[in-house]
Amino acid sequence: MSADRPRLRAVVDDLPAYVPGASSPVGAAAFKLSSNENPYPPLPSVLAAIQDAAADVNRYPDMFATELTGAIADSLGVGSDQVVAGAGSVAVLAHILEIVAEPGGEIVYPWRSFEAYPIAVELTGAASVRVPLSDDGRLDLPAMAAAVTERTRAVLICTPNNPTGPAVRQAELDEFLAAVPRHVLVLIDEAYVEFVRDPAAVDGLATLRVHSNVVVLRTFSKAYGLAGLRLGFAVARPRIAQAIRKASTPFGVSHLAQLAGIASLRAKDELLARVDALVAERAQLLHGLRAAGLPVLDSEANFVWLPLGDAASRFAADASAAGVVVRPFQGDGVRISVGESDATDTLLTFAAHWS
Length: 355
Description:
This protein is α/β, with parallel strands linked by helices. It is 39% helix and 15% strand. The strands form three sheets. Strands 2-8-7-6-5-3-4 form a seven-stranded mixed sheet, sandwiched between helices. Strands 9-12-11 form a three-stranded antiparallel sheet, with helices on one face.
C-alpha cells in the first residue's frame, strides 16, 4: 500500500457489496418487482403527516423518537423501554451487532439469507459463520445450533427468510433456543412478519417474553410502505434495549419518519387490509408460476423464490425485456416481489412461455 494514501481497514477490501434491486431501464415501461417494496402509495393520512413534518426539517428530530417508540410499544403490548427505533432495520441490526460482536468472536447466520448480514457482521471484526439452508429453502436450525461455539456472540434468524420465503416454525425455534447457551444473543429478524399466514410460524414477541437473550427486529418498510423514509426498530429486554440505544446514531430517525410511523400505526387496519390483498396476490403468483412449470418455493413473505441456479440471470434478463424487473442471485435463484395485479399478469404471461 502506498504510504501517501489513507489506510483503510483490511476487512473493507473483502466486504461483499450490497446489491439493490434493479430499477426499470430509463425510458422503459416495466414493473419493478426486484426490491420487496410495497406497491401501494402512502395513505392520505400518512402523506399528510409527512407533509406536516416537512415544515420542521430545519430542526433536529427527537433523538429518542419518544412518541414513536411509545406508539410502537402500545401497539405491541410491550414497555416503551423495550423499543429502540433506527434508520431502517439494517441500521438497527448494525447497532445490535456493535454491542455484542468483537474481533475473535463469531456470528452465526443462515445462507443464503439477507445480504446485509455478512456486511454488518464483518465490519464489527467478528467472523461470519454461514450455515447452508435446507434444500427446501428453510433455515436448518439444528445445523445452526451445532455451529454455535464458545466464540459465538449472536445468531441471526431471518423469518420469513429473505430471499427464499419460508418462515421458521415455533416448535423448531423452541428446540433451537433450548440448545443454545443463554449468553448468546438470538436476533429474530421479522421484517416480513405481517405477511405470515402459517399458524405454526414463530411468534417473536411471545418468544422474547420467555427468553431474555432474544431480540426481535422489525421494519416499517414492507407492510407499512415507508421504505423511502428508513424506519425500523428492535424489541428487547430493557437492559439490551438500553445498550442498543447507546450504540445508535444520534438523531438517526428523521422527524418525517417518526411522524409517518405514528400515522401508520394509527392507520394500521387500513394498511393491513392492503397486506391481505398482497397475500392474495402472492397466492395467485405462486399458482401461476407452478402452472407454468417453474419450480417455486412456498412463501410467507411479500416475495417468491425460484431456485433456478445458473439460469437465474437469464430468467431475469428475459423478464426485464418482457416488462418485469426481478432480482437474480446468479447460481442460486430469482426473487420476485409481490406487486400489483397488472404486474402479476405480465410476469405470468412471460413465465408461461419461458424456457
